[in-house]
Amino acid sequence: MRELSRLDIFGERLASNYQVIQSLAPRARILPMVKANAYGHGLQKISQFLLHDCHAPALGVASLGEALEIKTDRPVWVFSENLLQPQFATHYKKNIYPVVSDLAGLEFFLGAPEFKHHPLIIKIDSGMNRLGIAREEWASALKLITQSSRSSIQHLMSHFATSYYQQKPNDMITRQIQCFREAQSFFGSHLRIEETSMSNSGAIEQGLMVEESWVRPGLMLYGPGSFATKTKMISRFSTRVMKLKAYERGTPIGYGVHVTPEAGAIALLPIGYGDGFFTQSSGFTLRINGIEGKVFGRVNMDMTAVFFKQEAAGKIKVGDEVVLWDENPQELLDWATQMQTHSYQALCGISSRIPRVYHLG
After folding, report:
1. What's the rounded Cα separation, in Å, for the pair 319 and 55?
2. Is 256 exposed, middle or buried (0-12, 13-18, 19+ CB in 10 A)?
3. Residues 304, 5 contacting (CB under 8 angstroms)
4. How far separated are the first and last CA of the chain, in Å rounded?
């Protein structure tokens, strides 16, 4: 664990984001996604806060293993384990619900005694061509369900592929909504469909499909959004200067022997790609005491050099704090842009070596 680098996590901000989401989908229930260690923030702590402080009615994860880690009697939905097999069925306790996304899984689910009292949650493929029962399989799926003892689908869902783009006529978003409506009509003409959902973060921000039974926020719950939504980063990622030294122009620094472009100072930070501060961060602008410096040379596994011009002399010292991001999501988005990636990867990449410090009230 690091001593000088940390990720502070604030319950007040998380609760605020939850309320923003509810205001955008006032009639829907919220299914917070806590997969990937709650987007890097800590599965257990974030889950418990959402359940007990935000009163989330259920949670969503990617894997069965994640679901088993969460201690709750409320439903936990498993979205990405499409291989339903006997050796795993007994692990699906009464509150752990598999999302069925292929015909083989549906057939097993309907016939396995372990799932007799579990709700049937079906994901259809509306055009993303990833997980989901495809249009040409709908008739087979319907036959399997009607031949079982079930007369309803508890929850019918799909997933947007491009909701982080503004919806336009006849675009992918529009076609996916149309496909989902067709699936509702097809299955609903033979079975009772009790609940539906499709909205992920970008869709919620645009007001798309928020009239369904549920919405399923992920990224925006933790801060970043695709549009001008008033969510806050729930975390504050910071480190401190561990060494500061002045150098003349042309001094080689670190791996790769990158030389200083002019006289100035190098501040060494105890953070590197082993902590989730990726090598692509080279050249990124950081501020210490309001003074701009550039990540210099190659980011190491354990430390990073930041170059400051001579004008910074006397204004920076060992122990000074460096904030990578705080409440404003744009700070994280700027860093992700520098790394030529997205905010999802930036958040999920923060390693276990960075201590999480919780302020959950």
Report:
1. 40
2. exposed
3. no
4. 24
Token look-up 């319950």 returns 11
CB contact at 8 A, 221 and 233: no
- Token pair of 178 as six digits: 């149309």
> What ranges make up the beta strands (E) of the chain?
6-10, 29-30, 59-61, 76-78, 96-100, 121-123, 152-157, 192-197, 214-215, 235-240, 243-247, 252-253, 258-259, 264-269, 285-288, 291-296, 304-309, 321-325, 356-359
Strand pairing partners for 238? 6, 323
Short-list 28, 78, 84, 83, CA closest to 56? 28
Half-sphere exposure (Cβ direction) of 168: Cα atoms closer than 13 Å: 6
Quote the tokens at residue 228.
């001008």
Residue 272 tokens, joined: 């590197």
Residues 6+ apart with CB under 8 A from 25: 199, 204, 210, 215
d(CA 301, CA 248) in angstroms, rounded, equals 25
Domains of the chain with CATH codes: 31-222 (3.20.20.10), 235-359 (2.40.37.10)
Cα separations in angstroms, 23 against 3, 56, 222, 354 = 39, 14, 16, 33
Q: What is the pLDDT along the chain (361 residues), one digit of tens a residue?
A: 889 999 999 999 999 999 999 999 999 999 999 999 999 999 999 999 999 999 999 999 999 999 999 999 999 999 997 666 666 787 888 899 999 999 999 999 999 999 999 999 999 999 999 999 999 999 999 999 999 989 999 999 999 999 999 999 999 999 999 999 999 999 999 999 999 999 999 999 999 999 999 999 999 999 999 998 899 999 999 999 999 999 999 999 999 889 999 999 999 999 999 999 999 999 999 999 999 999 999 999 999 999 999 999 999 999 999 999 999 999 999 999 998 999 999 999 999 999 999 999 8
For the four alpha carbons of 20, 229, 178 and 141, in that order, the dihedral sign comes to negative
Q: Nearest-CA neighbor of 132 among 117, 147, 121?
A: 121
User: Closest by alpha carbon to 4, among 274, 270, 288, 272?
Assistant: 270
Helix axes 138-147, 103-111, angle to 10 degrees: 0
